[in-house]
């Protein structure tokens, strides 16, 4: 084990507490798992070596769609997305009552008897954001799609009677 590796037995609860919006997410991936998840698989059959030249050219044209070699920047982006998704739920723990207390206090402030005061302490924001900027065709959308494919877009919490939207992906084309 080198200096960059630390062997620690932790669970998601040790890091984020007992927040069902976080604990129901897929596990945090280690580097090898991220590479395995992101890497594209080439679809090659040995018999394809004997295809006619024109058919092999079509197979070669498919390579950019099938092959993806994760680079350090892709691993870093996956880690940032993983952190952003989980951190976004830290202040939204529906089991400890903080969110309900905040909503109740806000509602109390809006009742007619308290019309003169609409101030209440906003919850501490745990929201983060980032921009991904790069040349057209450099793999920004492909990488994001591969990373987000690991996460379910919606998680249903039947015991809590709610549906959790894990992420919303909005593409912003130049036009």
Automatic annotation (TrEMBL):
GO MF annotations, alphabetized: ATP binding
Keywords associated with the record: ATP-binding, Nucleotide-binding
Source species, domain of life: Bacteria
Protein name in UniProt: ATP-binding protein
Source species of the chain: Acinetobacter johnsonii
């Amino acid at each position: 084990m080198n200096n960059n590796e630390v062997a620690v037995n932790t669970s998601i609860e040790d890091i984020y507490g007992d927040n069902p919006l976080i604990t129901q997410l897929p596990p945090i991936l280690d580097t090898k798992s991220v590479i395995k998840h992101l890497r594209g698989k080439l679809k090659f059959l040995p018999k394809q070596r004997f295809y006619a030249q024109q058919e092999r050219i079509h197979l070669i044209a498919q390579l950019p769609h099938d092959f993806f070699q994760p680079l350090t920047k892709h691993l870093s982006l996956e880690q940032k997305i993983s952190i952003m998704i989980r951190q976004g739920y830290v202040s939204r723990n529906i089991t400890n009552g903080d969110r309900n207390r905040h909503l109740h206090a806000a509602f109390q402030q809006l009742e007619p008897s308290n019309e003169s005061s609409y101030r209440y302490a906003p919850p501490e924001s745990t929201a983060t954001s980032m921009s991904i900027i790069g040349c057209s065709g450099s793999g920004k959308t492909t990488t994001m799609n591969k990373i987000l494919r690991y996460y379910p877009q919606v998680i249903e919490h039947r015991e809590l009677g709610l549906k959790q939207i894990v992420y919303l992906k909005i593409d912003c084309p130049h036009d």
